[in-house]
Design goal:
This protein has 337 residues and is an alpha/beta fold. It is built from 14 helices and 7 strands. It has 2 domains: 81 residues; 245 residues, Alpha-Beta Barrel (TIM Barrel).
Length: 337
């Protein structure tokens, strides 16, 4: 483990634990301060005291760097890893190890906090093979949703990043509008590898409206995944929100027939769908996608929370599309258009 990787992993584990932002940024600043320095440079600077005087490197960061230079996993990182493992089960860890990717992530292009490059680097540290970059669509102005022009610019960037250690799949979290259509030009959706269709408005509408919108999204051949299907919030800074009313039997039957995956959203404040709806979707024959809905690098580590819920529900790994090799995944996402 390099000192830079140790600092970066600590930052995203703190982010995953929703620590205070100043603690997270302290380790990110330290990682930035040593970026580009060789291990020989770092050893020399540590030996003569220059490293400890470097702007952005505090006492804890210096300890992490020194221990990593000595070939050890830093004590602080070991503690964060142990705390994460304590919250998991053997079944959840086994399923997490089988997950290859994540089909729902955000960057600073919409309402995420960091560049795509930082998300890709965190995904690499976590051993992901692929992640879909799914920033919001234009109707969600509060989240700086991407117009067709801005999405085109993002696709150009992803094309230039295609040779990275983690495969970045061009995608979108597209708003499902009130008439059940998707909030992006079909020609743009044709260019994407992954389309996550989600409701973000009128979540308290009546059962018939919510159901009709979800059925409309499923009917669109571009849709691969239904994101956070009930819209509920169970904790967190935004408060709580009850789940939307829907005819789950009709929605899950349509999704199973169309082979549209139901997202198990791993964010702690969402935990969406609820356990009873996961069981119902499993019985209906649905596919699933365990995703993080990450808005920051550390959120990519939420995947284990979704894996725990899926394992507890007894979902076979082969029914979870994010366990599939990327070529099998892409054959599935492009099958209807």
């Amino acid at each position: 483990m390099t000192p830079h990787d140790a600092l970066a992993e600590i930052a995203f584990r703190l982010e995953r634990d929703r620590a205070e932002p100043f603690r997270i940024q302290a380790f990110r600043r330290a990682a930035a301060a040593i970026e580009g320095l060789t291990e020989d440079d770092l050893r020399s600077r540590a030996a003569d005291g220059r490293l400890g005087r470097t702007k952005g490197i505090g006492g804890r960061s210096l300890e992490v760097i020194t221990q990593a230079l000595g070939g050890a996993v830093p004590d602080y990182l070991q503690r964060l890893r142990a705390e994460a493992d304590a919250d998991s089960t053997p079944e959840g860890r086994t399923l997490l190890a089988a997950l290859r990717g994540d089909l729902h992530t955000h960057s600073e292009w919409s309402d995420g906090t960091t560049p795509i490059e930082a998300m890709a680097d965190a995904a690499r540290l976590l051993g992901r093979e692929y992640i879909a970059v799914t920033d919001h669509s234009p109707n969600l102005t509060v989240a700086n949703g991407l117009s067709a022009d801005r999405l085109t610019q993002q696709l150009d960037l992803l094309d230039r990043m295609r040779d990275g250690a983690v495969r970045l799949l061009p995608g979108i979290e597209v708003d499902v509008l009130e008439d059940g259509t998707l909030d992006q030009e079909p020609a743009m959706l044709d260019r994407l590898d992954v389309v996550v269709a989600s409701l973000h408005s009128r979540l308290r509408a009546d059962r018939s409206e919510i159901t009709a919108r979800l059925l409309g999204a499923i009917a669109d051949p571009h849709t691969n995944v239904l994101g956070h299907i009930t819209g509920r919030l169970v904790e967190g800074r935004r408060g709580t929100r009850p789940q939307s009313a829907l005819d789950s039997a009709r929605v899950f039957a349509a999704a199973a027939e169309a082979r549209v995956a139901i997202e198990i959203n791993s964010r702690p404040e969402r935990q969406d769908p609820p356990d009873d709806l996961i069981a119902e979707a499993l019985e209906a024959g649905c596919l699933f996608s365990i995703d993080t809905d990450a808005h920051a690098p550390g959120h990519l580590d939420f995947l284990g929370l979704g894996a725990e819920r899926a394992a507890a529900a007894g979902i076979p790994p082969e029914r979870i599309v994010t366990t599939w090799p990327v070529e099998d995944l892409l054959a599935w996402t492009h099958r209807r258009h």
